[in-house]
Design goal:
With about 180 residues, the chain is mainly β. Helix content is about 0%, strand content about 40%. The two termini are about 25 Å apart.
């Protein structure tokens, strides 16, 4: 991600297993070395996503296990929030985040069924209008956290019901425009 000052921010799961690495590169030094490197001992997993919220001047990182982490532009961890929790063998994989032009944070994730040899089950969606403090369904219904990623869980399923198949359900990316 980049910010309004053209800094480049990277996040990834630390290779040594220590958690989330968050780095900032600046045009002031030609992006040669990081301005800072922060490591946070939080459960990120191998697959994660990041989005920058320009209005709130903060970053969101969604981890593979269903948590969303909020960081400021200095890399300080502001919030570690379990949004989805594993229930009845269902968990999260392949998270996606975006902040739209209205400042709404959108989170979608492929649901994994641990009992299935090809585990992808459904695609779940929720949103936050307050920078990740609270989460809602598409229609605005508030969700208690952590919520369940199960196929009949309370968050919205955004794939078609007849597409609930471990062979066809996998979110590669998504984009929200004009509230849709």
């Amino acid at each position: 991600e980049t910010d309004e000052d053209n800094n480049i921010y990277l996040e990834y799961n630390a290779a040594d297993g220590t958690g989330l690495k968050f780095l900032c590169f600046s045009p002031d030094n030609g992006f040669a070395v990081p301005v800072f490197v922060r490591t946070h001992d939080v459960p990120v997993g191998a697959k994660n996503a990041m989005a920058y919220d320009r209005a709130r001047q903060q970053f969101y990182v969604a981890g593979q296990w269903g948590s969303v982490f909020t960081l400021d532009k200095s890399g300080n961890l502001l919030r570690n929030q379990e949004v989805f929790s594993s229930v009845n063998g269902y968990g999260c994989a392949y998270p996606h985040l975006m902040v739209d032009s209205f400042g709404v944070l959108h989170f979608a994730d492929t649901t994994a069924d641990a009992a299935n040899c090809i585990p992808y089950s459904t695609i779940r969606y929720l949103k936050s209008t307050d920078g990740g403090a609270t989460w809602r369904k598409m229609d605005g219904t508030a969700l208690a956290l952590p919520t369940s990623p199960e196929p009949d869980g309370p968050s919205d399923m955004i794939n078609l019901p007849d597409e609930v198949s471990p062979y066809s359900t996998w979110l590669a990316n998504f984009h929200v425009k004009d509230g849709k």
